[in-house]
From TrEMBL:
<dbReference type="Pfam" id="PF07045">
    <property type="entry name" value="DUF1330"/>
</dbReference>
<dbReference type="InterPro" id="IPR011008">
    <property type="entry name" value="Dimeric_a/b-barrel"/>
</dbReference>
<dbReference type="InterPro" id="IPR010753">
    <property type="entry name" value="DUF1330"/>
</dbReference>
<protein>
    <submittedName>
        <fullName>DUF1330 domain-containing protein</fullName>
    </submittedName>
</protein>
<feature type="domain" description="DUF1330">
    <location>
        <begin position="36"/>
        <end position="110"/>
    </location>
</feature>
């Protein structure tokens, strides 16, 4: 199962940029013992997030799946906001960040990393 974006994925991600902020949805399934490595990654990524203006807006453990097929439940969910898609791309291209990505890769059995864009707010 894929857990890391490839160069072609990042290229498409930037080509499809609608502009504005992006919130990355992270659905995570850990390998046996992977939570420890992912926690280390979580600490190590903070300076890189701050450098590009990113922030974790939610992080939590998966719980009861109410609507899901067998095997679709996730161990953890994260939402990470970036000011724009270029900021995320800049972060993952940073050599210092690339030196820590093995912590994430080693921790995960399966992952979904999906860009989301906010819906327009309703006028009152």
């Amino acid at each position: 199962m894929a857990v890391d974006p490839r160069g072609s994925d990042l290229k498409r991600y930037l080509q499809e940029d609608p502009g504005g902020p992006v919130v990355m949805l992270n659905l995570l399934r850990f390998k046996e013992g992977g939570r420890k490595s992912y926690a280390e990654y979580g600490r190590a990524i903070q300076p890189f997030l701050e450098k590009v203006g990113g922030e974790v807006v939610y992080a939590g453990d998966g719980s009861t799946a109410l609507v899901a097929e067998s095997g679709q439940a996730w161990d953890a969910v994260l939402l990470v906001r970036y000011p724009n898609r270029a900021a995320f791309s800049q972060m993952v291209a940073d050599p210092g960040y690339q030196a820590i990505t093995h912590l994430r890769t080693d921790a995960l059995q399966e992952a979904v990393l999906q860009a989301t864009t906010p819906w327009p707010s309703r006028q009152k």
